[in-house]
Design brief:
This protein is mainly beta and 287 residues long. It has helices at 2-21, 241-244, 262-265; strands at 29-35, 39-41, 45-54, 65-72, 78-81, 98-106, 114-124, 136-137, 143-151, 160-161, 169-171, 174-178, 182-188, 194-201, 211-217, 220-227, 233-239, 249-257, 278-286. It is 10% helix and 45% strand. The strands form four sheets. Strands 2, 4, 5, 7, 8 and 9 form a six-stranded mixed β-sheet that branches. A five-stranded antiparallel β-sheet has the order 10-13-18-15-16, with no helix packed on it. Strands 11-12-19-14-17 form a five-stranded antiparallel β-sheet. The termini are far apart.
């Protein structure tokens, strides 16, 4: 019996060892990541530069691979993910080239403060297969590319939406608020410089002209920009302590020109609201 047992173990080892010792597939690329800052508050924006340097002997890759972008706590648990399609399909990547692009993510209001590992990978959307990359693997062909520190949400991030804002709307996984022609948002004055970050889009005027958005505090012009109606625009603007004024509560005014009424543009609409722009994201933090 002992001989049979030893024989069984030997046979089992013969089956297992070749698979365990098999060489992993060669990496298709080396991933790297640049971040615009080492620490970011909860709810804040984070700008990323994602880069893949492909191997000189990269083998053909099937269609349908996506970029895995995961944010992990010190135990390796997933805090949040921002998986997405690369700007050019992985199947079109050429040997020895650099694929680089910018991406922005927003830190969710997750109940965690501390260091976060940022990991990249490439996976097939239909099967979950992951490609081998060169770098520090944190598990299951996911590779550490950066660390950032999550900090508490600042007081300025607690915004009060006043006159000129409509109720929140949600569709297709996105949420937003429409403004009227003038909309006021308030926050506590930190007595220091702040950075305003916002994502918004609008609708071109009836004649096709872009919408003009102006930001003011106490009737003092601060910043202006145009929206062409071609999709969401992300705006970051630094405001000095002097521009915020001396009041304890800052009232920031968004003015939009021109506005529009959906029912006047579309005969099938019953929406008679005066609308300015859709605001998807608005965040204020001391800088």
């Amino acid at each position: 019996m002992r001989g049979l047992a030893r024989l069984g173990l030997a046979l089992l080892a013969g089956w297992v060892l070749p698979a365990a010792c098999a060489n992993p597939p060669p990496p298709v690329a080396t991933p790297t990541l640049g971040v615009d800052r080492a620490a970011v508050p909860l709810g804040g924006p984070l700008a990323l530069t994602i880069r893949f340097d492909t191997a000189p002997d990269i083998a053909p890759v099937a269609e349908g691979f996506r970029v895995l972008l995961h944010f992990l706590d010190p135990d390796g648990a997933l805090l949040w993910a921002d998986d997405h399609d690369p700007p050019r399909p992985v199947a079109e990547w050429q040997p020895g080239e650099r694929v680089e692009y910018e991406r922005r993510t927003v830190v969710p209001m997750y109940p965690y403060i501390g260091e976060v590992t940022v990991a990249l990978g490439l996976y097939a959307a239909d099967t979950g297969e992951r490609l081998s990359l060169a770098g520090s693997e944190v598990g299951d062909r996911t590779y550490r590319v950066a660390t950032v520190s999550l900090e508490p949400q600042p007081e300025t991030a607690f915004l009060a939406y006043g006159d000129g804002w409509y109720r929140s709307e949600i569709a297709d996984g996105a949420s937003w608020r429409w403004t009227a022609g003038r909309a006021v948002v308030s926050f506590r004055n930190p007595r220091s410089d702040v950075e305003l970050a916002m994502e918004l889009d609008g609708r071109a005027g009836a004649a096709g002209e872009p919408q003009r958005v102006s930001l003011t505090i106490d009737e003092r012009p601060l910043h202006g920009f145009e929206l062409d109606g071609q999709g969401p625009t992300f705006v970051r603007r630094r405001l000095s302590a002097g521009e915020l004024g001396a009041k304890d509560i800052v009232e920031l005014m968004l003015e939009v020109d021109p506005t529009f009424v959906p029912a006047e543009r579309n005969p099938g609409s019953i929406d008679t609201r005066e609308l300015g722009v859709r605001v998807f994201y608005l965040f204020v933090e001391p800088r």
